[in-house]
Design brief:
By secondary structure, the protein is α/β, with parallel strands linked by helices. It contains 14 helices and 24 strands.
């Protein structure tokens, strides 16, 4: 392919993660689109659990990183998986699901990352070249730092891309952190000469104060590198763009009278955390990211967001004591909202026969069971809400559009639905939020260290949904006098007082 026929590229590199690459690339997309150019964003490889559903060139549905999705909107372009051809979705500290051109690639997911990167490079380069044929300008975003010398040889997102496109590169540093000039000079100095030549300008981002006070540092940096400081960008508060790559500001920005406090549980493998950014901009609403039981005290809402590792994050949630805190909150009439993996956690059980995520008991606040399918569901979705009550009443009849990205297939627990229709839902699930109670589903003691009894179901026995839905007909139940559950006592108490029978854990 003759590169002379391809559109030019501007590339935004950073001295570190969080320097402001995504924000600046988004701004450049809108700026050049306003000049009348057809602009496309591009990031060869993104490591993030923030994703959106978009169409693939073949007409199917795939996923791409949220940053490039919003950059495409800023460029007034249709989001396309080629704008983020390689998406790594972390599932553990040393493991990521690999998404290539919108689709999960199981073979690449199993490969060591160094070999994987080089193998997928031709596809990344082709995606960029295709965009350069279709658009007037491509705004490219790098990842992390281009000068990580331990990663340089296998890099497919920074300088390999810059060299392939012969991009005009700017290097961005976060001056609010301090050490910006050292970061800029050090990054430049670690690059080989032919890569240094692609750096056309330095950018100081997130500056607060009088820019004149920076002198003579910009000039000194220019003398040492031959690269000018082309821009000093003021700190942008409340710009509204979502945070990327799992980075978020845990500080609440709410001012004035606070009428609603919302806690979002920030478990280790949280996904699509950018969805909660708008909550920070609502007057009277205080948004808190929480990781402990103490932090949910006094909250009006608790939100369980999506997760890329639902079973592992649920185990983490329990280890923090958040399961009991959430249950107590719900029992007091507090609002609990589960989204995607968070909804799965609120059910009775997670069942994984495919080795996708993991098995485990749910929190038991909803009569749902989730099975993990081998194939991921990736598609847009729309739905018209029915008649709603309480806090949701204003949304009655509203038509909403969104997307689905999930392995879990969630459905009502059939036995609980039947029992609930007869007014005996409490016989299926009985647990407690009292004091030091563990608050787990009755009959989950094989996973918690407590003794269990196995046998045929008797009247009032608590059926373990994992066993029941596995089709082996077993029932696991506790002794009625066990301190951690008091199952029979609670059943009698709940049913005898005329309550719904749903006893929260």
């Amino acid at each position: 392919m003759h590169t002379s026929s391809l559109a030019p590229c501007i590339m935004v590199l950073g001295t570190s993660s969080g320097a402001g690459k995504s924000w600046l690339a988004t701004a450049l997309c809108r700026y050049y689109a306003n000049q009348g150019l057809r602009v496309a964003p591009f990031k060869a490889q993104n490591m993030s659990n923030n994703a959106r559903v978009v169409a693939t060139p073949e007409g199917a549905w795939g996923e791409m990183g949220s940053a490039q999705y919003f950059q495409a909107l800023a460029a007034r372009a249709t989001p396309d998986v080629r704008m983020n051809p390689l998406l790594l979705k972390p599932e553990a500290d040393t493991h990521s699901q690999v998404v290539v051109l919108g689709q999960v690639d199981a073979a690449l997911t199993r490969m060591p990352w160094r070999g994987r990167s080089l193998q997928v490079w031709p596809q990344l380069a082709q995606a960029l070249d295709d965009l350069r044929q279709e658009y007037d300008l491509v705004v490219i975003e790098g990842a992390g730092s281009p000068a990580e010398i331990n990663l340089h040889d296998s890099d497919v997102v920074n300088m390999r891309v810059a060299l392939h496109a012969q991009a005009h590169c700017v290097l961005v540093s976060d001056i609010d952190r301090g050490g910006a000039f050292a970061h800029l000079y050090g990054t430049w100095a670690l690059l080989p000469a032919h890569e240094q030549a692609l750096i056309r300008g330095f950018v100081l981002n997130k500056f607060r104060g009088d820019a004149a006070l920076l002198a003579p540092a910009p000039q000194m940096l220019h003398e040492k590198t031959g690269v000018p400081v082309v821009a000093t960008i003021p700190m942008q508060y409340g710009h509204g763009l979502p945070e990327e790559d799992g980075v978020f500001d845990a500080r609440s920005t709410a001012q004035g009278h606070i009428h609603t406090r919302i806690a979002v549980v920030a478990y280790p493998r949280i996904s699509n955390l950018d969805e909660f950014q708008p909550l920070k901009n609502i007057p009277g609403v205080a948004l808190h990211w929480v990781r402990s039981a103490a932090e949910v005290e006094g909250m009006d809402w608790i939100i369980l967001p999506g997760s890329k590792a639902t079973a592992a994050d649920l185990a983490w949630l329990r280890a923090q004591g958040l399961d009991a805190a959430i249950a107590a909150h719900a029992a007091r009439g507090g609002r609990v909202l589960g989204i995607c993996g968070g909804l799965q956690m609120l059910g009775e059980a997670l069942i994984d026969t495919e080795g996708v995520d993991g098995n485990g008991p749910g929190l038991g606040l909803l009569a749902l069971v989730t099975r993990f399918a081998a194939e991921k569901t990736v598609r847009p979705a729309q739905h018209r809400l029915g008649a709603l009550a309480g806090a949701w009443q204003a949304l009655s009849g509203v038509e909403v559009q969104g997307y689905e990205i999930h392995h879990g297939q969630t459905a009502p627990h059939p036995a609980m639905v039947v029992q609930g229709a007869q007014g005996f839902a409490g016989r299926i699930h009985a647990a407690t939020a009292r004091g030091d109670d563990h608050g787990l589903v009755a009959g989950q003691s094989d996973r918690t260290g407590f003794g269990v009894l196995e046998g045929p179901a008797g009247l009032g026995d608590a059926v373990d949904p994992v066993f029941e839905l596995a089709g082996n007909g077993k029932v696991v139940h506790r002794c009625a006098d066990h301190d951690d559950i008091r199952r029979q006592e609670l059943l009698e108490e709940g049913l005898g007082t005329g309550r719904s029978g749903r006893l929260f854990c």
